[in-house]
Amino acid sequence: MSPAILFRRRPKRRSLALAALVLPVFGFAVTWAFMMWQRGGPDPSHRSVPSPSIEVIDGDTVRFNRAVYRLVGFDTPERGDKARCDHERRRAERATTRLRALIASADARLTRVACACRPGQEGTPKCNFGRLCGSLSLGGRDAGQILISEGLAHPYVCGATSCPQRRPWCDGG
Q: What's the 3-state SS for 63-109?
């Protein structure tokens, strides 16, 4: 055979070998992506959920799919009988109303996160009054940071297994 013919065959062999490697990998990637899309993400217990299904209970508590979530990173005043004064009650209603408006007007995403509980107590009355913990993003911004910047919430960051004492709302705080 002439050198020209050998030269032509080598690229075809390399192309076939490369295709034999790439096509199965590509097929696997497409199959995996389709399965993840069907499931809603790599870990359905920690995936974000869209806003129409998020119900606001108060300024830092929401309900999704019958589960109640305490939003982490901030604290809002208590509502109703739990409020210690009228000032706290009014601020609680403003925080609750504002959170509802934010969820209605933005792309809201709730993501489940670990609570600051002792091992084995998350989701029980011994931890966070039986609530799960979540992080709420509104149009890419943290809900707590928005409410804090508007004076409707205080920063409230817990440790690994406990949370600090809440700041009071009745002394003008």
A: EECCEEEEECEEECCCCHHHCCCHHHHHHHHHHHHHHHHHHHHCCEE
Contacts of 156 (CB under 8 A, 6+ apart): 72, 73, 74, 75, 163, 164, 166, 167
For the whole model, what pTM was predicted? 0.66
* Per-residue pLDDT tens listing for the chain (173 residues): 555 555 455 555 666 665 565 555 555 554 444 444 344 434 434 444 444 589 999 999 999 888 899 999 999 998 888 878 988 899 999 999 999 999 998 889 999 998 888 888 787 777 778 889 999 999 999 999 999 999 999 998 877 777 777 888 887 55
Q: 70: which residues sit within 8 A by CB, 6+ positions away?
A: 60, 61, 115, 128, 129, 131, 132, 133, 134
